[in-house]
Structure formats: C-alpha cells, structure tokens
Amino acid sequence: KSEAIANEASNLGPIVRTIDGGTISSSFDVIAEQSLRGGYVQETIGYRDRIFVTLAGRVDGSSVFGEDHRSQFYPKVGGAYVVSEEPFWSGGLANTFDVFKIRASWGKAGNLTGIGPFDRFTNYNPISFGGQTGLIPSSSLGNPDIKPETQTEIEVGADISLLQNRLGIEFTYYNQDVDDLLLGRELSPSTGATSRIENVGKLTNKGVELMVRGMVLQRQDLNLQVTALFSRNRNKVTRLVEGTRFGIGGFSSQYAIEDQPLGVFYWRAYARDANGELLLTPDGLPQAERGIQSLQNACEVSETACFAEAQNLGLDPGDLVRDHDGNLSGIRRDGSGQPSGELLRLIVGDPNPDWTGSLIANLDYKKWSVRMQWDAVQGADIFNWNRRNFDRHNYQGGYDYGRELKGEVPKGWANATGSGLIIEEYVEDGSFIKLREVSVSYTFSPNTRAIRSVRVNLSGRNLLSIDDYTGYDPEIGISGRDTGVRGFDFGAVPIPRTFTLGATLTF
C-alpha cells in the first residue's frame, strides 16, 4: 500500500513558507495497493558428484492482472554433467583441464510487476467544472483480461578450468521467447482514449555470454588476476496484434515493429541521393524523405512483401526505388528527382547495443591492493532530444541558428530540419568505453591490542568516458525499468563522478 500527497504553491508572501500563503498551482493525492504472492518447490539430485539435476515448480500471483490470469505456474528443469569427474578423464586430460562441466536448463518465468496496480481499469480523474466537482475518464482505457508476460528460456553452456585453476572459462548460449508482451498500445481517437496496455505479441532474445578469468601473475607477494566479460543479445519482435507496428513511447519516436528490435527509432529521415548525400531542395535546404508509407512498410518486411504491395498499388515492380543502401523502399521521386508523396516514417536508429563487455584487473602486492574496471557498450544509438530542442532556430539561440547567422548554411536550414521533425539528425552513436572504477587499499596492523587490523581504501567511480556523444553522458536511463523506451535522452542527469575514502577496522 502506498499514498503520495503533493501540493505546490507560488507567489508566496515575505517570510511565508506554508502552502496556503500563496497561489496553489497544483495538488494531487495518489493511493495505490497491490498484492503479490508466490510459492515454489525445488529439488536438486546429485549422482556420484558428477551428474546433477534440478527440478522446480513455482506458482506466482499478482492482483494487478485480470481475475482469470492472476495465478500462473512456472516450471523449471536444469542439469549439469561434470565430465572431468569420470575415470577416463585421468592422465593427459586431467593435467590440462582441472574442471570440465557442461550444463543445460529450461524454464519459465513471469512479470508480476509489468503494469501498475490499477492499469487494468478505466480509471476516472476528479475535475472541477463550474464550481462543482466531477469525474472524467482517463486517456488510457482499461483491459480486464490483461495477463502477465511469460518468458520461456533454454540455456546451454560450459564451465572450464585449466592450468591448475589459473585459467577459467564460462560460456553460455540462451534463447528466450516472451509471449503476451505487455506494451502500451496507441488507440484511435474514436475510442475516446489514446492508449491501452495490452498483451500485444511476442519477442525473442538470443545471445551469448562469455567470461574468461586468468591468474596472470602468482608470486609469494604479487598476484595479478584479470577477468574479461563479453555479452551479445539479439532482440526481435516476432509478432504484433492487428498490424505490424505501433508507438511505445519516446514522444512517439520509438516503435514496436515486427521483425525489428524492440524500441527502434522510427520517424522522419533525410532525403538522400544514390550516394547517401543529402538531397537538397532547389533553395539548397535539407528535406525529409517522401514516398508511399504502405509500400515502405511492406519493403521493411521483405522484398516479396514489397513487390506484392507495389502490385496492389498498381505500380510497375521495375519502377521501385531503392534507398542509398540498395534496399527496396517506398521512396518516390518526381520528374526533377525531388522527393514526392507523403512524408515517410523510416527506421533511423536502434537503441539496442551490438555487444557489451568489461575488463577487470585485481593486483595484490604485499599490503597493497589495486582494482581497476573498464566497461564498454558498443553499437547502441541515442536520440538526443535535448539537442533537437536547443538546435532548432525557434529558440533563437541554438547551434543551427548560429550557423545561419554566420552564413555557414542558407537561411531556413534549421527550420527545414525542425519543422519536418527529421530526427535522423539527432540520433547519435551512443557507444562508450568507461573507466568505471579504480580503487587502492592498504592494510596494516596498528601497534595496539584493541584493533587487529586497519584497511584504508580510496576509490573513484566513473572517472573517464571515451565516446563521441554530444550530450552529457551516453549511459542514460530516464525510462527506468521500461525496456521498450531506451536510448532516449531528455533532461537526463548524467552519472556522477564520485570519490570515496574509507577505513575498515577489525577488532
């Protein structure tokens, strides 16, 4: 149960610090209540310290979902085989491989907190009208049959230890299917609302995880251990109800589209020629790409769908235009080679990274310990909404407006970009390499019976970021736990650089 009350007032009088001493500008009271329950049974069976099997069953329930879908059963089974414990492993193999274990598992899980406590209802909000109180429906329709997402995952991997445990390798491959995907779906205005949370379809996650840990140096007073982590995930929406795409957030810039990663940036893009250069207007200004949106949608699915939609529109398949990457598209040109037709929506970026990784080094020398960690995220795009707002000339002070004043670009350049909402201009590479942490510690024993040892530690976090992002920090997350809206920078507070000095005393 939770309740939040907030009141805001302005124009307070001198020395007045109470709400009723000014003009109350806003006031709200929010009450929420939800119930979660669960129980599980799990059993692990081992045979001769080499074969292990785990069986589990879990029942979870949440009050936030429809009455017929509140309780779900999630089974799980896993197994591991320590091959290096077999008799045939002795001899040459045992001298090289200390441990060789293979493992596999299958299981299901759910999303108990995927929606708010009362999101399944069409809620009503209080309103004052003509001095009287009343109620109006919210802009989000309820869905009494809403149910939790169900995640089914298969995982296989191996754990290997070599060279007298000085080198360790862990490898995992997984394939995860998510059914009944929960997303806020935009609705037609004729419904009387703008959105509704629904079970809209399916998506998949496939990826690999690799960890390599090695003892580089091992001496009496000197030890150096290095750990490298690598992970790669490929996300794709495989099915959506009633159509192949709809907006999921980010000021309608991020979409769920069949056969595309979840949350791709989907909006206006620059018109370009066959070489990928900007196709300017006769006045020398940039412009958005135009064509036939239904044809573009079909071409994004496959060439077969593209040809079928062209035939449906009465177009000659030989007249289909390819984009500057050589892909069939719905882009059209008039007789003078200028864009023609309706403004197109195109995929202009993907917030999902190609891969992530970390490199961690731990050095121990006598009473000194040093730890260093680097983190990397590569291939993720960011929509820099901050730059989009401040570069546009209607703010009378942005970067693009300054370029016009200096004569670097023709007059109207910034307005041509901003009025067409060509967000391709503001989708940037969010790849980065960060020096996440450096810590140095020293341990000594003071000359006293009361204190056995003292450990003094100095550490710094987020000390350096190597990136090309024009904003404050490419590592952003303004949407919190929302996995659909990612890589969206709008007033995000950058991760701070911190320094910590501490001491640990052992008595």
How would you summarize the topology of this molecule?
Elements: E1 2-10, E2 23-32, E3 36-47, E4 51-62, E5 71-82, H1 92-96, E6 97-110, E7 124-129, E8 132-137, E9 140-141, E10 150-162, E11 167-179, E12 182-186, E13 195-199, E14 201-218, E15 222-240, E16 245-249, E17 254-257, E18 264-267, E19 290-291, H2 293-301, H3 303-312, E20 342-343, E21 346-349, E22 355-365, E23 368-378, E24 381-384, H4 385-391, H5 399-405, H6 413-419, E25 427-429, E26 432-444, E27 453-467, E28 488-489, E29 498-506
Parallel strand pairs: 9-13, 24-28
Antiparallel strand pairs: 1-2, 3-4, 4-5, 5-6, 6-10, 7-8, 10-11, 11-14, 12-13, 14-15, 15-22, 16-17, 17-18, 18-21, 19-20, 22-23, 23-26, 24-25, 26-27, 27-29
Helix pairs in contact: 2-3
Walk me through what this model shows:
By secondary structure, the chain is mostly beta strands. 9% of the residues lie in helices and 48% in strands. It contains 6 helices and 29 strands. The strands form 7 sheets. It has a 13-stranded antiparallel beta sheet. Strands 16-17-18-21 form a 4-stranded antiparallel beta sheet, with no helix packed on it. The protein has a 3-stranded mixed beta sheet with strand order 9-13-12, with no helix packed on it. Helix 2 runs antiparallel to helix 3. The longest helix is centred in the middle third of the chain and has 10 residues, at 303-312.
